[in-house]
Amino acid sequence: MAPLATKVQRAVAAVPFLFITAWAWREMDLDRVVVMQQPYVDSGIIAWEGLDKVSILDHFHNVDFFDQIWRGTMATFSASSFGYDKVAWWQVFSFLIDLGPVYAIWILESRRAGSAWTPVFIPTLFTFAAQLLGIGPVAPVFYFLSFAFGPTASDLARTSARGRKIGHQESGLLLPIILTFHTCEVFAMFLAPDLATRHYWTWAWQLTPVWIGVSNFLLSRLASPLLPKSGVLTSPKSVLVVLGLISAGTWAYTLSSAPFSLSTIFIPVAGTQTEYVAHVRKVFQTDHLGAFVSSFLWLTYSFLDLSVAGLLSTTSLFLNFALLPVVGAAAGPGAAFTLGWYLRERALSSAKN
């Protein structure tokens, strides 16, 4: 592992991640959200002109902390999931679908031998924190710790090929787990024909990162002897291909069908928003930007790290930098992020020792 001086240098270099966290936290202004959603919490009813009233479910998780803290969140999500903010429906649906690849990559990174007992080793802690605080402020902290204190490309290059790669036993069940606990729930949140069903699945989705992390940890160990050591269906690449295609399909649907410009859907309006719907829209747009700006910054740092370690040529480095914005524009940020991670993995696998 890198010496302490190197870790300090990398931490200093990674300070831009913390700037993203500070920006996202300020712009999201979650204290304002709590105040704005309080009337819904007090009444127990989500109501909007032109929509049926929906009673907020009580004791959904039967854990008082969760049931109380996410009671108001149900009202906050309803602007997008119920569709009374039509702009937010498109943005949040795309955003949550794109989180599938992010969850997968964080978990896959944690299963690399060189990641043991580093901050990357506990991704579920960060994804759970993201459910409470927003992934926009949390993801940059995860990437900061990952880059500063995780294994460097040079560290990984010196390990065995097995130590660098993520085994099929580590990813064999990850795809059905994410599809079950995340992707299907998001589709139900936004596409179910009645609002009560959308409300139910919005509640269910709040603990999704925990169920993904716990299920993958337990089931991958129980099923490890039964999983093949190779095979297309259980490879990490297949996990990302499927989730990336779902993200790309959602992006294509947005491009072809949304009645709003991409800037209207995804770019938050500057300044304080005093109305509930406008502020909630800004919160999710900021959350989205914070998550993926930091994700692509992490890829940038990773590519540069690979170049310094001699695992990525200058030509390949610039090709990667040129390719990802094109893929991002054509297929969306979730698909582009999966491609970037694949390119990183391919470079790591090229190390000879």
UniProtKB/TrEMBL annotation:
This is Uncharacterized protein. It comes from the Eukaryota.
